[in-house]
Design a protein that fits this description.
3-stranded antiparallel sheet; 13 helices; elongated; alpha+beta; Endonuclease, Chain A; 4-stranded mixed sheet; about 45% helix; single chain; Arc Repressor Mutant, subunit A; about 325 residues
Length: about 325
């Protein structure tokens, strides 16, 4: 019996370690601990009560991950981190929210202080993952949930962050929208992705950038022309200036970024000045774009030297 309890103890503490040092009473009971053994460990300070039936193991301090794991365990079987809390765990929500979002894949009516608990019995297993050892909705499902709560700029930022971190790209997310058809949030995401991948990557992004360039003192540029073997977004041949504006759909993979660096290097070697702005800077930080363009335009408004390496068509 002592040997069985010793093995159970090791398994329980191993489980708790994997779960950020948090364990549920039901887990300890399932591993062979009796009520007296649990109470003994509470009295000796080896367990610390977080909430009814949920304990911290070894030390009482609460990290963010411990709070998340404790909330999931408190909500019972089928509970996962979701919505804003899931977005924070994935690194795609920058606004702090002290309340913890938990979705439970069964019918329930949990009421706990500091938690937002949603009963979601229809949430499929395919929309659940583990990240840092914590059960959480997948990036696609998390973004769909965010679409029901965030305004468009914040949702767009989350989609961009998910793309930059290689969690899920716009194309894959658009495919998932077909699977999510009819659910809340789908239309907001579809509108966002359609706008970014089709309009803002070309004509709308150009429309946004042109008045900023004009305000900086630049003449109308040539657009979508080939320079040194690369198609560029904006080109001022009399000034020797190339400006690239990176939309959401493009410039995100390692290969694409390598190509961006290569084209910038080729333009620089040919004697051109090259600037690159993100779509977000063009749309939401036009004053910054202007502050960069204005002195650049003033510096370049002088007779352009012969550029033997320049190819332009």
């Amino acid at each position: 019996m002592a040997r069985r309890k010793s093995n159970a103890s090791r398994r329980a503490w191993g489980l708790a370690a994997r779960q950020h040092g948090v364990v549920a009473r039901r887990q300890l009971l399932a591993l062979g601990f009796g009520e007296e053994a649990i109470e003994h460990r509470l009295a000796k300070g080896r367990l610390h009560r977080i909430s009814p039936g949920v304990y911290a193991v070894g030390w009482p301090g609460m990290t963010r991950e411990r709070r998340w794991m404790a909330a999931i365990l408190a909500c019972g079987e089928g509970a996962v981190l979701s919505h804003r809390s899931a977005a924070t765990l994935w690194g795609v929500d920058r606004k702090r929210d002290d309340r913890i979002d938990v979705s439970v894949r069964r019918r329930c009516e949990h009421r706990r202080a500091g938690l937002r608990v949603r009963s979601r019995p229809s949430l499929p297993e395919s929309d659940v993952a583990k990240h840092m050892g914590i059960p959480v909705t997948t990036p696609a499902r998390t973004l769909l949930d965010l679409a029901t709560e965030l305004d468009l700029p914040d949702l767009e930022r989350a989609v961009n962050d998910a793309d930059k971190q290689d969690l899920i790209g716009p194309d894959d997310l658009r495919e998932d929208l077909e699977r999510f058809a009819g659910e809340p949030g789908v239309q907001s995401l579809r509108t966002l992705l359609d706008r970014d991948t089709f309009r803002l990557s070309d004509s709308d992004l150009e429309r946004l950038f042109r008045p900023i360039a004009a305000a900086a003192g630049l003449p109308p540029p040539e657009t979508k022309v080939w320079v040194n073997g690369f198609e560029v977004d904006f080109f001022w041949p009399d000034l020797g200036l190339v400006v690239e504006t990176d939309g959401l759909r493009y410039h995100r993979t390692a290969a694409a970024q390598t190509k961006d660096h290569l084209r910038d290097q080729v333009h620089t070697a040919a004697g051109l000045a090259t600037l690159r702005f993100t779509y977000r800077q063009v749309k939401y930080e036009p004053a910054h774009v202007k502050r960069i363009l204005t002195p650049t335009a003033q510096r370049l408004k002088r007779p352009l030297p012969d550029l033997p390496g320049l190819e332009h068509r």
